[in-house]
Amino acid sequence: MDVLMPQLGETVAEGKITKWFKAAGDPVKPGDNLFEIETDKVSMEVPSTAAGVLAEIRVPVGEVAPVGAVVAVIADGAGAAASPAVSPAALAATILPPTAMLPPAQTQHQTRQETQPVKLDPFFEVRTPERNFGPARLPGGIGVTPLARRLAAEAGIELSLLSGSGPHGRIVARDVEQTPRPSRASPAEGPSAEQVKALYAPGSYEEVPLDAMRRTIAARLTRAAQTIPHFYLTADIAIDRLIALREEANNAAPKDAAGTPAFKLSLNDFVIRALALALQRVPAANAAWAGDRILRFKASDIGVAVALDGGLIAPVIRGAETKSLTAISAETKDLATRAREKKLKPADYQGGSSTVSNLGMYGVREFAAIINPPHATMLAVGAARRQAVEQADGSVAFVSMLTVTLSCDHRVVDGALGAALLAAVKALLETPVAMLI
């Protein structure tokens, strides 16, 4: 039986093998961990689905293979390749969370163009005819046929930016084929490596190859900057009352026998909850662009940008408007820890309705962020500072101020709507007791 590189998320196209738990010639049984893979977002152990002997390792430690590539071969005890009947759904269930599994077969409505001979599709985990499976879905429920997904991956096209012409808005192969391909030598991507290197003396620099995470970040943010019509709104927020409330809450936190407090709220925890509640107060802004329509969400699922070595990721706090500050604090810490250890699952970082990016801990006073698609907004948070402010009676007093900038997708959020959302965030942070009600 061929052992294939599994799919670990909607946008993951390849994985790097970081460890083999078995060596060639070792016996294996179902459930035994075979190897560990690392993608641009996660690290995960992959189990065997068959019994036999690991006859061959085709992708050694440290090498990258595309999704669906054969990385090893399992043979039966007599040396012949084992071929147990393993359904794609059963194999996916050993790797993917339920929300990322492929839907059941839907064969009646596929076009002749997308009914192909048996072949290896890099977005499936087994060798199978494409006609045996219905379309996978993008976040938001938009259907995508297997052939369309493969063509988009080969062409470097972001599926979430396309409009589907198939039944029920499904994205099919012709939608991808009719989309202009991003040029590798386009002016937006800048000069080539050879052109840049020619400007510097040989030996005056070190070349650092791009890993999967950096390539993904570069591609997604380039597309976001080119295709999303950004505009930015900035506000200064007085946070003296917020700081006092935070200190009082942290001082009141119960402690264990060793004196360790049960929680320690950060300024960012209040910002996350404020944005979540503000999106409920201004529901038209709690939305995402979906090609030929806008998706408006019921819950406020807030992504939190986490810096990693060589990149970043934004795991999502689901239903943040329903969670207490202490719950948000604990979940944020857990997600950040698992993100840095590359232990997140696709369900931890896919979807969401907006994102908070905080660079205050680096002393950055203010900045404007590039929106994380398909979100329509992103809140950039700077460092708190003391600032002289004129009071109502004409006197001057020093006040703790925080500058935040809301990036908006003008296709979804107009200027007045963005201003209303930012005003709601400001009101909640300046009157923090409202977040406790």
What can you tell me about this protein's structure?
The chain folds into 2 domains: 1-101, Beta Barrel (OB fold (Dihydrolipoamide Acetyltransferase, E2P)); 228-436, Chloramphenicol acetyltransferase-like domain (Chloramphenicol Acetyltransferase, 2-Layer Sandwich), CATH 3.30.559. It is built from 10 helices and 21 strands. The protein has helices spanning 88-93, 146-155, 173-177, 193-197, 212-227, 240-251, 267-281, 325-340, 346-349, 415-430, and strands at 2-4, 14-20, 27-28, 33-38, 43-47, 52-57, 64-66, 70-75, 136-137, 143-144, 230-238, 287-289, 294-296, 302-304, 306-308, 311-313, 316-317, 354-358, 377-381, 385-390, 396-409. A hairpin with a 4-residue loop joins strand 4 (33-38) and strand 5 (43-47).
Task: Indicate the topology.
Elements: E1 2-4, E2 14-20, E3 27-28, E4 33-38, E5 43-47, E6 52-57, E7 64-66, E8 70-75, H1 88-93, E9 136-137, E10 143-144, H2 146-155, H3 173-177, H4 193-197, H5 212-227, E11 230-238, H6 240-251, H7 267-281, E12 287-289, E13 294-296, E14 302-304, E15 306-308, E16 311-313, E17 316-317, H8 325-340, H9 346-349, E18 354-358, E19 377-381, E20 385-390, E21 396-409, H10 415-430
Parallel strand pairs: 14-18, 18-19
Antiparallel strand pairs: 1-8, 2-4, 2-7, 3-6, 4-5, 6-8, 9-10, 11-21, 12-13, 14-17, 15-16, 19-21, 20-21
Helix pairs in contact: 7-8, 7-10
Using brief descriptors, characterize the structure shown.
437 residues; alpha+beta; OB fold (Dihydrolipoamide Acetyltransferase, E2P); Chloramphenicol Acetyltransferase; 10 helices
